Amino acid sequence: MTDAVRVESLYRTYDAGTPVTALDGVSAAFAAGTFTAVMGPSGSGKSTLLQCAAGLDRPSAGRVFLGGVELTATGDTAMTKFRRERAGFVFQDYNLLSALTVEQNVVLPLRLAGRRPDRGRVRAVLGTLGLTERAGELPERLSGGQRQRVAVARALVGEPAVIFADEPTGALDLRSAREVLALLRTAVRDFGRTVIMVTHDPMAAAYADTVLFLADGRLAGQLSAPTPEAVAAHLTELVAA
């Protein structure tokens, strides 16, 4: 199976007076068409791994491959362009522009990349996510779950190879969280996307095919076909170690 994303010996150190190592030699591969959750205790490096894998941050050392192209070998401009073409993003705080309608928010990344939105594609994605009747409304008129569905639609409409999701259910109630997680599974099953999701929630992680665990910036285990109970037990072991 082809790797959609591969990271090799990633190190990320921040210097805020005293150097802090967020990633300490992490290597991992994420196969195309799979859903991976990344988990770990607070400060384990999971969000840093996501940001480096997505090209939102540069590692201090190591290599990142997205679709077989080494992002870490490109300049900032080329990295931004490639990221816009190959990656979609879903964040905890939605990152929607309040002055734009639902549809305008969904097509914004395409316009920023200089691409003409395919109206048929936009309508199909909005329909799949139950947003057709909301297309002309502003985000302030939507619930939290609906806003996150807009963020998922925005991530899907550009047909990215990989969707990176950072705590996408962290601000949602249980029902809305389950709806968004089901949509991310749909992105894998029906749209053939690869999803890499950072989460602290064992229930959310159980929607993934595989859970990758981090602790102190290093890999600390992997769990296939996860259940909430198995994920919670592994996290408890990490915290207690």
Would you mind describing this structure in some detail?
This protein is α/β, with parallel strands linked by helices and 241 residues long. It has one domain (3-240): P-loop containing nucleotide triphosphate hydrolases (Rossmann fold). Helices cover 36% and strands 29% of the residues. It is built from 8 helices and 10 strands. The chain has helices spanning 46-53, 76-86, 102-112, 119-128, 144-157, 174-189, 202-205, 228-240, and strands at 3-16, 18-31, 35-39, 61-66, 69-70, 87-91, 162-166, 194-198, 210-215, 218-224. The strands form 2 sheets. Strands 6-7-8-3-9-10 form a 6-stranded mixed sheet, with helices on both faces. Strand 9 and strand 10 form a beta hairpin. The two termini are 34 Å apart. The model has no long low-confidence stretch (mean pLDDT 92). GO terms for molecular function: ATP binding; ATP hydrolysis activity; transmembrane transporter activity. InterPro entries: AAA+_ATPase, ABC_transporter-like_ATP-bd, ABC_transporter-like_CS, ABC_transpr_LolD-like, MacB-like_ATP-bd, P-loop_NTPase. This is ABC transporter ATP-binding protein. Residues 5-241 form the ABC transporter domain. It holds the Pfam family ABC_tran.
